[in-house]
Amino acid sequence: VHLVESGGGLVQAGGSLRLSCAASGNIFDINVMGWYRQVPGKERELVAVIDSGGSADYADSVKERFSISRDNAENTVYLQMNSLKPEDTAVYYCKYTAIYVTTNPEMYWGQGTRVTVSS
Questions:
Q1: Which among 37, 60, 96, 118 could bridge 90 via Cys, Cβ 3.0 to 4.6 Å?
Q2: Number of H helices, E strands in the chain
Q3: Residue 29 pLDDT > 90
Q4: Per DSSP, what are the bridge partners of residue 93?
């Protein structure tokens, strides 16, 4: 599975960005796609995830500001980020997890896209 992210960039505080992640390759029907972020010196943290049925979950720090969605036909996940804050500055990574019944999940990461929010 290959993941290609896009949409990062520089934005002023209070602004918006939309990240996209397109998955290609051997896509399994039952999967979870999501966004994580990382800043230097800290562990990568979950931002938002959504499963193939459309159920989503968010980190408390982004609830009410970020919205995750997906297009299963295009194997693409989106992250709409509104009311951005300087503390949202990070490299954002897309993650794809295939969920199997009888074997362990398979996980893949994108290369990351940088989001910088200026104050």
A1: 37
A2: 0, 11
A3: no
A4: 36
